[in-house]
Amino acid sequence: MLITKPNGNFRPLVIMHAAIQLSVFWVLAFLSLCTALVLLNIFYALIGDGLELLSLGKEAVIAGIASLVEAASLWLVVAFVPGAARAMIFPALVVATIYKVAHFEDWGRFEVILLLVFQIVVGCLGVSLFFGQFQTAMIILVVFAAVLAVIAGISKNL
After folding, report:
1. Which end of the chain is more exposed for a tag (fewer CB within 10 A), N or C?
2. Mean pLDDT over all residues of the chain?
3. pTM for the whole structure
4. What percentage of the chain reaches a pLDDT higher than 90?
């Protein structure tokens, strides 16, 4: 649908209720965060270290709260300040703090940073695949696998 602004410019708008947008962002953030946790757990098992996770219910609650923070922040940026994508660093810091507090005794900084990196990679892969950018998705996957191989090699030698 095209809407005419008062100055005569046309701007395509997707008319969607704010609650639906927030819910969609929340579901996508929750799925990417849960996928990142599972992949991080698999990575830690492959390198011979154990990732200390809480029970499934507790991890789901933590992921739900953290993904709500991410979704609300993304919705605010998309809805009100589209040019302020750099502001998404603040919700990332909040999510890192949530996970650090929830796993205070078990996790160090490295696990929290890796979780955020895994989530970013999962999100970028999902967006690339959704928009049909298979070459971009493949490049992201190969570069990320290479970085993980280096990290695994370093951690095996320690």
Report:
1. C
2. 87
3. 0.83
4. 57
Residue with structure tokens 């696990």? Answer: 111
Long-range contacts of 104-108 (CB under 8 A, 24+ apart): 106/52, 107/52
Domain residue ranges in the chain: 17-157
Ramachandran assignment for 108, one of left (phi > 0), alpha (psi -120 to 50 degrees), beta (any other): beta
Question: With contact defined as beta carbons under 8 Å apart, do 98 and 66 qualify?
Answer: yes
d(CA 117, CA 32): 11
Give the list of residues 6+ apart from residue 109 with CB closer than 8 angstroms, or none. Answer: 100
Q: What is the largest CA-CA distance in the chain?
A: 64
* CB proximity list for 31: less than 8 A, separation 6 or greater: none
What lies within 8 Å, CB to CB, of 64 at 6+ separation is 30
Q: Which residue has the tokens 């991080």?
A: 40
pLDDT tens digits for range 21-44: 899 999 999 999 999 999 999 999
